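Review form for a predicted model. The reviewer records the input and the model, then writes brief findings.
Reviewer: anonymous (R2)
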Amino acid sequence: MDLRDRAALVTGATSGLGAAIARALATEGANVALTHLGHRDEGVAVCREIEAKGRRASLVHLDQTDPASCEAAVDQTVGALGRLDILVNNAAVNQPVPFQDLDGLTPEIWDRLLDTNLRGPFLLSRAAARHLKRQAQGRIINISGFPGLTPMGSSIALAVSKAGLIHLTHCLAVALAPSITVNCVAPGMMEGTRMSARVRPEALAALREKAALKRTTDIDDVARQVVLFCQAESVTGQTLVIDGGIVFQ
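Model under review:
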């Protein structure tokens, strides 16, 4: 699919990976709506960068635990950009709880992570589907993570939510074919993000050592893969892991 003049909605795009994806799509000619839940000033700055590339940009408030907010974000995107061709489900939350601390993983933490990281992408995909089908070349890209494939990460709830997102990708690929493709990228730890800033230096060093390539994940590699999934005509239901080889160790 040629991305020129296509319209994309990228959730959680005020910084980090979401912002990198938004910039990469704009570089390929897409107009982009970015969602925020706080951090509005950062979102405005990313919009200005996209507009400097000669593309249209819009900033949309989204609480993806709220079905009405999901519907409104999609409708506002279509209103601002005139159409919707691409949905990138990037926004997620995390709250570290050691795997062994089952008592510390409260029902409230579990529900918050699953509601945001798994239920939210479903709600947004459902809201976007009718608009994506109109183009007959719709694209949904989900952002999971290496904890979705192996029992690692900052909590069991995070790992389960990311694993669920991978299978949601499989299920939506069947449900929305043939007019919409649905794929997933599962990154490893990406330095320079809000999440990595909360990770202890020794923990980052341990992740580098665990990776076959002895490095963390490059944000731009992940953003480029999102673009490639958007451009691909015959790929759906797939998950690509970009983690430097952690899951193979």
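Findings: The beta strands are 7-10, 31-36, 57-61, 86-89, 138-143, 180-187, 239-242.
Further findings: DSSP finds eight helices and seven strands in the chain.
Recommendation: see findings above.
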